[in-house]
């Protein structure tokens, strides 16, 4: 397994962000980590990057316990903007290339052309949609074996969302990379997912193969998710 979470619990004070979670992620697949805001999706991704450590249990990437050095194997798109506002796009590309040995400048330039971004434009002048595109370019231009995307569609219009999905299909190496997309917006990524994992209040409440969902159960990911979420919310009430 590329990534393994074994009996992972994460507490912030008395609150559980994750509660005894067991998960495995394999190379060559796109996973959707689905759940409402505050369900534990972002915490899961941060644990895989080494930004957050479990209160109990273990997180491993390629059999090694996750540390801050795990960022060498993990390319992480955070929901937050992490830009130097005064930089141009070109300078931001150069900065990433200086920080990550696996950063592929040729791939970055291809993505820039595809997404119609001008390299001399300053980041502070970019629209929210173009900032979202730039975040994706910086993430996908790395040839890291693990790609993590935290709410990549948040607040973006349909055109930008479509370009993100197309870029994922074009620039991911499915022989070598594992992709995990954490989102509460399912429509955009349903066509490209291999497996879906539903999380609610820190608990894994469902894990399915997308093709089997469609062919054997005759349902879409969205309908499956609505059903299990409805069941859980009824239990809470």
Provide the residue-averaged pLDDT.
Answer: 90
Beta percentage is 25-35%
Architecture, according to CATH?
Answer: 3-Layer(aba) Sandwich
Measure the end-to-end span.
37 Å
Spatial extent as radius of gyration? 18 Å
Number of structural domains: 1
Number of helices: 7
As a percent range, the share of helical residues equals 25-40%
Give the biggest sheet. Answer: 6 strands, mixed
* Alpha-beta content class: alpha/beta
Please write out the topology:
Layout lengths: L2 E10 L2 E11 L4 E5 L6 H9 L6 E6 L2 E2 L8 E4 L11 H11 L5 H10 L13 H13 L5 E5 L7 H14 L6 E6 L11 E6 L2 E7 H7 L4 H16 L1
Helix pairs in contact: 3-4, 4-5
Description:
With 237 residues, this protein is an alpha/beta fold. It has one domain (3-236): P-loop containing nucleotide triphosphate hydrolases (Rossmann fold). Helix content is 34%, strand content 26%. The strands form 2 sheets. The chain has a 6-stranded mixed β-sheet, sandwiched between helices. A 4-stranded antiparallel β-sheet has the order 2-1-4-5, with helices on one face. Strand 1 (3-12) and strand 2 form a beta hairpin. Helix 3 runs antiparallel to helix 4 (128-140) and helix 4 (128-140) runs parallel beside helix 5. 38% of the residues are buried.
């Amino acid at each position: 397994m590329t990534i393994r979470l074994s009996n992972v619990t994460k507490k912030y004070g008395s609150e559980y962000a994750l509660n005894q979670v067991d998960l495995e992620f394999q190379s060559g697949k796109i996973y959707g980590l689905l759940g409402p805001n505050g369900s534990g999706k972002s915490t899961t991704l941060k644990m895989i990057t080494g930004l957050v450590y479990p209160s109990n249990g273990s997180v491993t990437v390629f059999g090694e316990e996750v540390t801050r050095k795990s960022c060498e194997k993990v390319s992480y798109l955070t929901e937050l903007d992490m830009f130097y506002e005064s930089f141009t796009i070109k300078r931001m590309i150069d900065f990433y290339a200086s920080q990550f040995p696996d950063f592929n400048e040729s791939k970055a330039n291809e993505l820039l052309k595809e997404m119609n971004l001008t390299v001399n434009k300053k980041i502070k002048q970019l629209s929210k949609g173009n900032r979202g595109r730039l975040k994706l370019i910086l993430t996908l231009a790395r040839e890291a074996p693990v790609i993590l995307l935290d709410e990549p569609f948040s607040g973006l219009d349909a055109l930008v969302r479509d370009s993100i999905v197309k870029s994922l299909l074009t620039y991911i190496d499915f022989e070598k990379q594992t992709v995990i997309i954490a989102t509460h917006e399912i429509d955009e990524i349903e066509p490209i997912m291999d497996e879906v994992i539903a999380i609610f209040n820190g608990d894994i409440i469902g894990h399915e193969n997308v093709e089997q969902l469609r062919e054997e159960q005759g349902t879409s990911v969205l309908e499956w998710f609505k059903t299990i979420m409805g069941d859980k919310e009824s239990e809470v009430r």
